[in-house]
Amino acid sequence: MTDLRIEGLTKAYGPDHGGSTTPGTPRSSTGTTVLDGLSLDVPSGSLAAVLGPSGCGKTTLLRVIAGFLRADAGTVTVGGRTLTAPGTHVPPERRQIGIVPQEGALFPHLSAARNVAFGVTDRAARQRRAEEMLELVGLAGYGGRMPHELSGGQQQRVALARALAPAPALVLLDEPFNALDSALRAGVRADVRAALHATGATAVLVTHDQQEALSVADLVAVIHEGRVAQCGTPHDVYSRPASPWVAGFVGDAVLLPGTASNGTATTALGTIELRAPAEVPGNGTVILRPEQLRLTEPTGTTPSGTVTDVRYYGHDAVITLSVEGLERPVDVRVDGHLRLRPGDRTGLHPTGRATFHAGPPRH
Ligand SMILES: Nc1ncnc2c1ncn2[C@@H]1O[C@H](COP(=O)(O)OP(=O)(O)OP(=O)(O)O)[C@@H](O)[C@H]1O
Q1: H or E element: which one contains 246?
Q2: Taking the mean position of all CA atoms in its chain, how far away is CA 304?
Q3: Region label for 318, one of left (φ > 0), alpha (ψ between -120 and 50) or beta (otherwise)
């Protein structure tokens, strides 16, 4: 069992917190709190994506887990072994953590096989282990190549093989697909996911890309204001966002003012069934996804709107509508064949069930 448990992790940057010493950086006595009591559990063998906007502290979290940064408070344990706690700081090289950085960062003077073998301490097993790992990441036969003879995607696979070779307790991946173009990304992502699952490794992948998090991970942890705003399966996070902020960050959201009572909410688009009865009935925000709105012929009696924008994505399109009774425009996802133009009138009605949160949309 190598589950990762993080509890109450706090980290501030500043003169007293091991932060920036860049000349000219304003000095503060309190520092900037980046992680603010963050807690997260990743079960053994799962791949968790840590998802959040730029600057929310994802890299800081990874660096604290890896031991490159000291936490101000909180604990990190892997497989029951305490790595970080008040008075305890296991150095990075003794944490048994494999790291896949943003861009391979392979040793340029070593072949792919020697890069992979680098951290394997059992000399007799090195070569065989390197071959096994290269095969696992789909690069059997590439062991003799030097890093500059490999494509970006192949370099990232070698970096993963290198991280996995010493059979670490935990693997950390820091935006590992950033440098790859989008055509290559999907393939490398799928291979990385398969390799991680094949070894049964517990892994944390940092990303700001919600599609990547939803498509690759077993668990998605959304970071907001130094804490985990929501952690769940990709489906849970998408279909039951914990707040309007999470809904807007993870995918596109339709946020409607509404009044909830029992299991339904009344909105400008009619009465919508809720996934769960509102904890606090009354006024709040009803959250739907753009694919939950259907366009209909405008009848004059049902909700209707005017098309203000059409964005075509090939497999589908998103139509933005200005709707009577709603301050904000509403996005509707439709299949790519629909022919609507700005200025056209259309009826619309919600389908499926919504999530309700007491309070205004951007709470
Ligand atoms: N050494 C440092 N000294 C002071 N502030 C820092 C230092 N490193 C990071 N920060 C600040 O801490 C915050 C979090 O940075 P971090 O790199 O962890 O974010 P991130 O979520 O990984 O961002 P990105 O997605 O852009 O890489 C940012 O506001 C950043 O400016």
Answers
A1: helix 244-249
A2: 35
A3: beta
Q: Cα(232)–Cα(220) distance, rounded to whole angstroms?
A: 6
Q: Hey, where are the domains in the chain?
A: 4-96+168-239, 253-358
Residue 268 has pLDDT above 70, yes or no: yes
The whole-angstrom separation of Cα 151 and Cα 158 is: 10
Give, as one character, the DSSP assignment of residue 123: G
- Amino acid at residue number 149: E
353 touches 277 (CB < 8 A): no
Domain spanning 253-358 has what CATH number?
2.40.50.140
Handedness of CA 360, 229, 173, 58 (dihedral sign): positive
pLDDT score of 131: 92
- Tokens 């792919």 sit at which residue? 112
d(C-alpha 226, C-alpha 224), whole Å: 6
pLDDT tens for 225-247 read 999 999 999 999 999 999 999 99
Q: How remote is the CA of residue 142 from the centroid of ligand 1, in Å?
A: 36
Determine whether the shortest distance from the Cβ of 174 to ligand 1 is under 6 A.
no
Query: Which backbone phi and psi does 216 adopt, to 5 degrees?
Result: -105, -35
Of ligand 1's atoms, which has the minimum distance to the CA of residue 62? 18
Residue of the CA atom closest to atom 24 of ligand 1 = 54
Mean of the per-residue pLDDT values of the chain: 89
Prediction pTM value: 0.87
Name residues whose C-beta falls within 8 Å of residue 26's C-beta, 6 or more positions apart in sequence.
Answer: none
Residue tagged 């999470």 (tokens): 246
Return the CATH architecture of domain 4-96+168-239.
Answer: 3-Layer(aba) Sandwich (3.40)
Helix (H) or strand (E) holding 235: helix 234-239
